[in-house]
Design goal:
This protein has 12 helices and 14 strands. With 343 residues, the chain is an alpha/beta fold. The chain has a single domain, classed as Alpha-Beta Barrel (TIM Barrel). The N and C termini lie far apart (44 Å). It binds ligand FNR. Ligand FNR binds next to helix 11. Its main location: other.
Length: 343
């Protein structure tokens, strides 16, 4: 049940496969005889210096993978000098994660019907020293993952959604008998979420806001008008709408629309250093990884996550060296070719 929850995509899982296949259609154009004795992977994201352009995407319920869950991930991210994004639906609290590792943390926000819950979450993240809010915008309603339906997926009883345990969060009065019932959180997301709420969110926090889940240049342009601090091109790891394109296929369109006004990041299907290189060549400022983190957490806890980050780092470094790029700014559109370039 847990493996299927982590691994599967929605409906036909076409996008899940496409997220990987699409990378295979992009080829590298290495340049030679360039001094690559030093390869510099460092970069800055929203003004924060990090060791590499590879960050951790929010994934829910990490304690199902390992007893240390999000705490282990936070420590591994911090040790690797990169950013971890904590999910609203985490099995460790905002405060626990903040005290687990001294690294840079972003908080991923889901918007509930009860806006007071949202305000509380944002205030707690601010107070705990989180550096940005990642507003997920591709989940007004839950996508249909048939494996989860077949398995009757539910969070094992020994874990809880620690950010949602405040006395009044997730509990509502049952009008019929007056008793307090625990709501099923997955049903409490607000499907009316819209651009006005982005403005509202800006009034309740001074933290930078990234929108996660943009797949079109139209929405990227609106996001800029609304003054967001960055965009994460994402199809939620193929867990929401099936038959949307792989993110690597729409990245360039979005980068062009954004015209450098804010950084554009990408996730979904990134498994190799070459994938990261291709994303950077298409104009991404950095990438996020989801499943590689939960899988490595399940295998080896904090060490596992540390290893995955190290592997990706080494692979990116190798790709850069073999392509003649001594630093991230040397990676250009000319270092790759897409199907349409070759047509
Ligand atoms: C996710 N994702 C996700 N996104 C989000 O905004 N909030 C969340 O709570 C979760 N939870 C979640 C759980 C699991 C098990 C997975 C695999 C994914 C989506 C995640 O942030 C990211 O967009 C994708 O995981 C990226 O794709 P890859 O790297 O998994 O292919």
């Amino acid at each position: 049940m847990v493996y299927d929850f982590y691994a599967s995509g929605s409906e036909d899982q076409w996008t899940l496969k496409e997220n990987r296949d699409a990378f295979s259609s992009i080829l590298l154009r290495p340049r030679i005889l360039i001094d690559v004795s030093e390869v510099d992977l460092t970069t800055s994201v929203l003004g924060f210096e990090i060791s590499m352009p590879i960050m951790i995407a929010p994934t829910s319920m990490q304690k199902m993978a390992h007893p240390q869950g999000e705490l282990a991930t936070a420590r591994a991210a911090s040790a690797a000098g990169t950013i971890m994004t904590l999910s609203t639906m985490a099995t460790s609290s905002i405060e626990e994660v903040a005290s687990a590792g001294p690294g840079i943390l972003f908080f991923q926000l889901y918007v509930f019907r009860d806006r007071n819950t949202v305000i509380q979450l944002v205030k707690r993240a601010e107070k705990a020293g989180f550096k940005a809010i990642v507003l997920t915008v591709d989940r007004p309603v839950l996508g249909r993952k048939e494996d989860d339906i077949k398995n009757r997926f539910s969070l094992p009883a020994n874990y809880s959604l620690r950010n949602l345990e405040e006395p009044n969060i997730g509990k509502k009065k049952d009008e019929t008998n007056g008793s307090v019932q625990f709501c099923h959180f997955l049903g409490e997301f607000d499907p009316s979420l819209n651009w006005k709420d982005v403005k509202w969110l800006q009034t309740i926090t001074s933290l930078p806001i990234l929108l996660k889940g943009i797949l079109t240049s139209e929405d990227a342009r609106i996001a800029i008008e609304y003054g967001v601090s960055g965009i994460i091109v994402s199809n939620h790891g193929a867990r929401q709408l099936d038959y949307v394109p792989a993110t690597i296929m729409v990245l360039e369109e979005i980068v062009k629309a954004v015209q450098g006004k804010v950084p554009v990041f990408v996730d979904s299907g990134i498994r190799r250093g070459t994938d990261v290189f291709k994303a950077l060549a298409l104009g991404a400022s950095g990438v996020f990884i989801g499943r590689p983190v939960v899988y490595s957490l399940a295998a080896e806890g904090e060490d596992g996550v540390g290893n995955v980050l190290k592997m990706l780092r080494e692979e990116l470094q190798l790709t850069m060296a073999l392509s003649g790029c001594a630093s991230l700014k040397h990676i250009t559109r000319h270092h790759i070719s897409t199907d349409s370039d070759r047509a």
